[in-house]
Amino acid sequence: MFASTTGNLIDRVTQRWVQFTGRQVDLVKDAWLKGPIGDPQCIGGDYFHELARKESWQVRPGTGLVRDFAKLRGPGFEPGAVAKPVAEFYEKTAGYTMDAWSEWCSAFRPFGSLLALIFSRRLQQLNIPLSSLETSRGLTSEVMDLVDPKTGEVRITAWLRRLVDSGRVLYAGSYSTCRVPNYEGECVKVVFPLPNGNAMVIMRPVAHADGSFSVISHGKHFGDPGFYFTVHSTRGVRARYLKSLRESIRVYAAEEQTVRADHVLTLWGLTFLKLHYRLRRKPQA
């Protein structure tokens, strides 16, 4: 039924799950599901440089995850209601240092350890910290633009985060905005390349009365904001929507030249992980 995919056995099993339980999509019609896909073996810190080489793009230092925060304006969301330091972080992300702390629900911690053992450490992708000790020396934060030299168009904005002490990659993702079928406004789209496909989180923006800003991936149906897996093969692309997995990130102004963020992930309505970030403006920025 499906064209074979290559790579690690565990990866092939999860890809088959997406292929059998997901739906066929046409990336011409369903352009919101487009995103970089990974090689069968590993993602790692060189992924975006390798992608640029294959596509004959140039890699340049990036500035922000969202080049124009006002682009998120839509029904129910007004960017002007968000505190200026928060909007500046999204537009000038490269000018900030990052510290992080993690809080695992004790019942889910073994699952996190198993995920790290089987997938994350091997792939060098989605390496969610298992304890605050792992991130105690901080994270590096590198924003890069992959640019088509013929047109000058930024094809991909990537955010690469590593542990300072070991250099191990935590997250390698692309950031953009998109519109999904079941939501009227612009959403933030984050794509994490995986072997023969990707994991994609599409989040709607929310402005709070205190000037803080959230992106929320909650949804109920395919085409809503939420979490998607895609698998690419010679017979096309299959996509699986995971309504049981949800996340929200709330960013707020804190001390001078600092914003903080609280990142909450839930599964079947149960909070299994909270991540807390401190993002400080670099002196030269």
Describe the structure in your own words.
The chain has 285 residues and is α+β, with helices and mostly antiparallel strands. It has one domain. The protein is built from 4 helices and 14 strands. A hairpin with a 5-residue loop joins strand 5 and strand 6.
In short:
16% of the residues lie in helices and 40% in strands.
Number of domains: 1
Radius of gyration: 18 Å
By DSSP, the count of extended strands is 14
Shape field: globular
Q: What value does the average pLDDT take?
A: 93
Oligomer: single chain
The helix count comes to: 4
Largest sheet: 14 strands, antiparallel
Order of helices and strands: HEHEHEHEEEEEEEEEEE
The structure class reads: alpha+beta
> Regions with pLDDT < 50 over 5+ consecutive residues?
none
What percentage of residues falls in helices of 4 or more residues?
A: 10-25%
Q: What are the salient characteristics of this protein?
A:
alpha+beta; 14 strands
Topology at a glance:
Layout: H1 9-21, E1 23-25, H2 47-55, E2 58-61, H3 84-91, E3 96-104, H4 109-123, E4 139-147, E5 154-163, E6 169-178, E7 187-194, E8 197-207, E9 213-216, E10 226-233, E11 236-242, E12 245-253, E13 258-267, E14 270-281
Antiparallel strand pairs: 1-11, 2-4, 3-14, 4-5, 5-6, 6-7, 7-8, 8-9, 8-10, 9-12, 10-11, 12-13, 13-14
